[in-house]
Specification:
272 residues; alpha/beta; TIM Barrel; eight-stranded parallel barrel; two-stranded antiparallel sheet; 11 strands; 33% helix; KDO8P_synthase; EC 2.5.1.55; cytoplasm
Amino acid sequence: MQLDRISQIKHTDSGNFFLLCGPCAIEGEEMALRIAEKVVTITDKLQIPYVFKGSFKKANRSRVDSFTGIGDEKALRILRKVSETFNVPTVTDIHEISDAKMAAEYVDILQIPAFLVRQTDLVVAAAQTGKTVNLKKGQFMSPESMKHAVQKVIDSSNEQVMITDRGTMFGYQDMIVDFRGIPTMKQYAPVVLDVTHSLQQPNQTSGVTGGRPDMIETIARAGIATGADGIFIETHFDPSNAKSDGANMLHLDYLENLLTHLVAIRKTINTF
């Protein structure tokens, strides 16, 4: 994957990691623009290549009454407005084959959720749009097995593909990051570490996913130190009232401090 082939991405010659960051779900226009404005300001200051992240719908929910979205077209139009307003690329996840063509009209990167990354028809549909494809490693998959998912994209005449590690589930209510997987998967494609989802605590008896946001910086630092090409962080100005994944999100007020530390680590690594 060539980072500079992603439309509107900036600071690609800075030597920094790239960042996929935004709210878990698009809850409305005002919140999306507010978050994007803050992150754009920070990433321009630190010269971090930035992609705004927001799910236009949430299909993988614990309960039937969980928030799933504000409407597909409405949310996708908001993603387009974010891109046009701040001159940044956007990424959203897709869940069905029909989502690929629809979402590709609005965003620059199509993300395949971890639970669906072995769905060949979905991966191929995303690849055939010509958009960059972000493959989330399944919580049930080894790093080595991701080479096959990457190959599906390449075999669909699309070399714009990346892998995102979001942890592996070894128990019932925890995700574990095996940092050996980062250099392994870098043999196949650029690797992003999804810091916030790696700290989820799913399968709670309440039906609402928990998390460990206090460990965000620890996991992020380790990811940069072990060579991750990019970092994925979900953030919100009011995580406790976010409609999805609030328990493991980073508060927007803490983002600049975290990224400043990560840039310093990256600069040190680049001297070796």
